[in-house]
Amino acid sequence: MAVDVTTAGEAGARRRGDDALIGWLLLAGLVAVGAALLAVAATRGAAAWPAWAFTVAGLAAIAAHGAWVFWPFQRLERRLPVEEERFQRLDASLGATCLHLGSGDLVRAAAASAGLPSRVAAAFTASTAALSGLAQQIQDSSVEVASAADAVNRIASELAAGSSQQAASVVEITAAMEELARTAAQIAGSASRQAELASLAEDSGDAGAAAVDEAVAGVEEVKKRISAIANRADALGSRSKEIYRVLDLITEIAQETHILSLNAAIEAVAAGPDGRRFSVVAEEVRHLAQRSQESVESVRTLLDEFAGSTRATIVATEEGSKEAVRVFERSRAAAAAIAELRHTSGDTARVARQISLATQQQNAASDEVVMTLREVSLVVQRMTGGLKDLSATADRLNALALEIQLLAQSFHLDSARSLKHVVESWAARATAAAPAARQELLEELVRGTQFADLLYLVDERGTMSALAVNPATIGARPSLDLAQLRDVDMRRRPWFRNAERERRTGITPPYQSILTGEQCFTVCACVGLPDGGFGGVLAVDVNVTGWTRI
Amino acid sequence: MEATHLLVRAGEYVCALPLGAVRQVLRSLTLHPLPGSAPELKGLAEFAGDPLPVLDLARLARAPQGANPVFPVTVVAWAGPPEARELVGLAADAALDVVVLPAAALVAAAPGSGGDGGLVAGEAIVGGQVVRVIDLQALGQVS
Fold first, then answer.
1. Is B2-142 a domain of CATH 2.40.50.180?
2. How confident is the model over A82-114, as pLDDT tens digits?
3. pLDDT value at residue A5
4. What is the mean pLDDT of chain A?
5. A56/A209: higher pLDDT
6. Range of the domain at A52
7. What kind and span of H or E run contains B23?
8. Measured between beta carbons, which residues in chain B are less than 8 angstroms from residue A258?
9. Hey, are the CB atoms on A266 and B73 less than 8 Å from each other?
10. Is the CB of residue B2 less than 8 Å away from at least one CB of chain A?
11. Residues whose CB falls within 8 Å of the CB of residue A224, separated by 6 or more in sequence, listed in order
12. Which of residues 61-90 of B touch A (CB under 8 A)?
């Protein structure tokens, strides 16, 4: 680069020397031509002094050109290569500074601006400091915006979920109230029908009470008649006993007659032949007594049957009387029950009418509640929709904050909050560490962070040489094994190619981690070889949630 | 030869008393028992102003005890041989009839059936029923 600048300066000096000589020759030629033209004019009759004046002025002009133009130009010509070389250095410094600024590496830009003039360097330093502060403020603000958006999203999601549950509850309550209204209408109808039935029952109770009163009167009449029958049966029994006494008397008379006839027969036998007629009479009397006795026995048999029937009649009438008493008592109890039933039916009809009226009022109130609940349901649904929109807006705001964060992180700041700075410092430690100690170093580094899911070291051949998983962020999820990833060629990855080409720390756009399923991005910094060459890449998978939480 | 008899019931037996020896048939007389007398003697009754010994005909005929009589009677009859006959009362359960028993119908009593000391003179069938004829003369000897 310096050789090229010198050659260009010499060529420029030669070109500028030739131009000065040509200038001298043109000026002298113009003076000579002017003086010659004036001399010719003097020979043709014109005055000679203009030619002399022109010649003197021309010489004076040539002398002035030499004194004020040519010789300063010669001095400037001698200083020009030095200034040009200085300009080239300034240009290189300015280019490097602008290049670092363009790539967002404010640390290297500040270092590169040291070669600039002090005022320019101070201005660059102040600019990079201001830019660094601005980037840090943007980072902080984006983190706060992301946190706030996350909080808003979470609250909006909770509110949306609560509103959804509330809407579902309102729908259920509305359905329940509608069911209640329908049930109230049914109850009102049932109560009206019950009131009508109670009125009918009251009327029927009146008719039943009258019928029972008639039945009671009839039963009382039956009881009286049964009592009369019992009395007559008793009288019949008494008469039967008298008949028995008469029969006993007749029997006794017949027996006496029989004995008398026997004695007559005895007397007839004692009378001998004279008593033969008398014996016949005695025999007839004996037969008569015997028939009388037989008739009495027949009558007694009939009377026994009659007495048995009479006794059965008495027993039946007694049973009938008792049954009539029981029926009478039951009828009176039924009359009392029907009277109570009438009273109760009246009360039931009155209460049923009150229930019907109250239920109709309840039905109207339920309808109003249902209408109000429908309005509430619409409001809740609108609120749910609004909360969902708010949640979506918070999501977009969160994504925007993440983009701002990533844009801010594209600046390499001299700050612990600058991921490029952090990862470059880790890459520097990895560069300094022995290859065998790099796995242990990665595990130590990953344990000290709450945002890095994964740290891995890829050598210059694109092979993963070390891998450390953060148990604090991965948790119980299945982890990765280095042996599974050792055969993966990382040179195909854009971030590796960028790092190899640019030799600069880079950040990937956010993507979904196959390890956690959450959003993450990768920061990759170059690792140097002992000879200063490209020795690979240290990549850090940064968990977005963990980083924004920090 | 035939004889007229008075049929009476004594226990489960129907006994025939010779009508010539019967003085009168009365409803059961009021008895006055005699302490220490024989079981056949039921007591003394008053008949026509005189005391009348009343004998239990069923016991005399060794008849089994029958049902309670409805119209018990006392048959006043002459007992004993004609030269020494005397009036006795025979307590019977009922006076049935006056029948004529032919002599041919009378058969001797089965041995041991009476055990009555010859009081039952014989038996006859009347109306399909066994009638035991009482020998009132023998009754005087027995008594």
1. yes
2. 888 888 888 888 888 888 888 778 888 888 888
3. 45
4. 82
5. A56
6. 2-103
7. strand B22-27
8. 95
9. no
10. no
11. none
12. 71, 73
